């Protein structure tokens, strides 16, 4: 099958290489020095699940690629709306656009641009980044990719995608029964992990060791889960405890991508994370004071980094 990877960074580059190794036609869409390296030297993945190097067509112009069976949209959340406007050359009648971002709004933003019939929800659990131009480094995480039609239907295209993903070495492929549950499940944890490491400027180990901060971590989890249930998302009752146990097992020096972006002057995903919790909470009449606090503390930094 023909895949376009829109945003061939840590997540997209990893998936593109694995799909290419499984025999699929893969086109990379990237920009800047990373694109230049992809065009001259190919894509190298350095992974705890096994290294690989692939030589794939790479461009910054989707019109060079044409219609695909699947578009894996792997940009940062704050780039989704701009990216969605550039998707049209990649779309055939039955093309699926699979969104792999942090947050719970990307699928709706993409649907507003290209139509809901093209959109498939996705969740990525992987620690990977661009190590240097042309090189993606996968340092850990389960490399689990979860996806599903927004209405939960098991369509031929989602089953074919599942077959393709399942064939890839180094990929734990999961076809979700209800992708909205999976989106909010991850979102609940990311808002706490990202929000707390960024606001305190400290790793998870020191947050765990400070009672007030650990309680705030717990409260952020609880607030997000409460908003999800108020929107009709059937999250498991034990989700908060599940994520607390998971966070207890993380390496004490672990931060988050939001903290990295904050401290390196890069655009931040705050509006797609804790800021989104505040917006969704207003819509369903739920109080989320801890998420409001995180948003208020980090908003000046997000605005500064955008400038």
UniProtKB/TrEMBL annotation:
Leading EC class: oxidoreductase
Pfam families for the chain: ApbA, ApbA_C
Domain Ketopantoate reductase C-terminal: start-end pairs: 179-299
Enzyme Commission (EC) number: 1.1.1.169
One GO term (biological process): coenzyme A biosynthetic process
Pathway where it operates: Cofactor biosynthesis; coenzyme A biosynthesis
Ketopantoate reductase N-terminal domain location: 4-151
Annotated GO CC locations: cytoplasm
Catalytic activity: (R)-pantoate + NAD(+) = 2-dehydropantoate + NADH + H(+); (R)-pantoate + NADP(+) = 2-dehydropantoate + NADPH + H(+)
One annotated GO molecular function: 2-dehydropantoate 2-reductase activity
Function summary: Catalyzes the NAD(P)H-dependent reduction of ketopantoate into pantoic acid.
Similarity comment text for this entry: Belongs to the ketopantoate reductase family.
Protein name: 2-dehydropantoate 2-reductase
Gene source species: Haloferax marinum
Lineage: Archaea, Methanobacteriati, Methanobacteriota, Stenosarchaea group, Halobacteria
